[in-house]
Amino acid sequence: MQAGRLRMETGRRCLLGWGSAYPGEPVSTAQLCQKVQDLTGLSTLRKGQWMAARLGVQNRHLCRDFLHTQEVPRPGARNPQLAAAALQQAMDRAALPVDTLGYLISHTSTPAQLLPAGSAEIARLTGHTGAHMELRQACTGFANALQIAFAMTAQPGSAPVGIVGVETGSVFFDPLNLASDTAQWVNFLQMGDGAAAVIIGPDDAESSQPRIAHAYFGQCQNAPAPGLCLRPGGSDASFFEGGVLNFEHDYTGVQQHGLALLAQGRRALEDVGYSLTDADWVVPHQASGALAPWLAKQWHLPVERVCAHAAQVGNLGSASIWAALGHVLDHARPQQSAAALFLGAEATQYSFGGFALELP
Fold first, then answer.
1. What is the value of pTM for the model shown?
2. Among 176, 202, 228, which residue terminates a domain?
3. Do 211 and 189 fall within a single domain?
């Protein structure tokens, strides 16, 4: 597996606002396993607790209730509704009036419907009357969205761009499959639902806002088969026999190749002067709560400087990096000049992307 051409933006952009939205109260692993055991009769508590200790996810938010094996999101917890709530929070933090975004970009791998794009409903819910688009991408959707937003905000005075990532993947899971498909245990215990958003504006020398710098994106060549995929529903598989669509998860392949993706991002940032050993925070893709201590050991970093936000919210897929960014900013110490390095990775197509976050 080799890296293709790297796309690196050398400028900086102001981070005007950020926000997140989660469906319902946190659900612990014990609560989740009990729900599924009561629903299906499968014995999930012992194995669930054992696997949860290895994955490091203690809590997650879910858009469904697990009252039935097949469910849709609760009212108010649909994919575009969560996205709109996160985007509105980011707009409020940025103190921007309604309908001031130059463009709205959403990204998700679990849209409410194939057509129309979810960005249309997000725009209606937030009062955005301008242009919008949706990227159908998982964990590095944020990186491609940043490439677009950087281009749109290159000129001083450019209108800000709103970006929101959102996932409601828990509905793509039938707990009855736990009896026959080991990979579904990882999906069951690792994933979470939620949305997170940012508002990106042109670089303003007088602004005291954080800056996003050196946004990059790369695509691996000669990559292995996708580590995560959802085949039915597209034109290659427009029909299927009943039941629930399930993510196919090659978690052994993800384990084998995941570090290489993060290492590509590390090299990209080191090439423009950002050393991980000097950064105040290192924020890898939040695949699980266990990733942070594992990566700290691999790269000889203090474990407290590697973000482990997934321990409390699970793997949020396309929303993961934006949600972790909010977590870092909420825990930044006042009046401290600092930098956080974000290393996104996606096993669906073995891509990588990220950026440096500079705090004033």
1. 0.95
2. 202
3. no
